[in-house]
Amino acid sequence: MINRAITLATAATAATVCLSMIAATPDAQAVARRTVTVKHPPITNQGDVSESWSAQQNVIESKQYERLLQTNQTKEEALQAALAGVRAASAEVGG
Q1: CA distance 73 to 38
Q2: Rounded to an integer, what distance in angstroms lies between the CA atom of residue 79 and that of residue 28?
Q3: Rounded to whole angstroms, how far apart are CA atoms 79 and 90?
């Protein structure tokens, strides 16, 4: 009876060790899913980079662009107001 208990305990220990080894081994899919990052310098075209670029010129052009947007917004608002008046007059006429 003691021999049988020792045999069962040994078998259980061996099974536990085998299952632990299987659980600790990464599967093939996990190995295949590893990510590889390839780094390279930015790709630019000839017109993308200017050798005469300056921060001051960039600020000047940014301000010009902001004024252009603001002017266009003012014109858009005036146009919408004018169209609202035309639509109201058209509605009164039954148009």
Answers
A1: 44
A2: 65
A3: 16
Confidence of residue 20 (pLDDT cuts 50, 70, 90): confident
In this prediction the pTM is 0.33
Structure confidence at residue 53 (pLDDT)? 74
**DSSP codes, the chain:** -HHHHHHHHHHHHHHHHHHHHHHHSPPHHHHHT-------PPP--TTT--TT--HHHHHHHHHHHHHHHHHHHHHHHHHHHHHHHHHHHHHHHT-
Which pair of tokens denotes residue 12?
A: 């259980």
Q: Which two tokens stand for residue 2?
A: 């003691």
Amino acid at 81: A
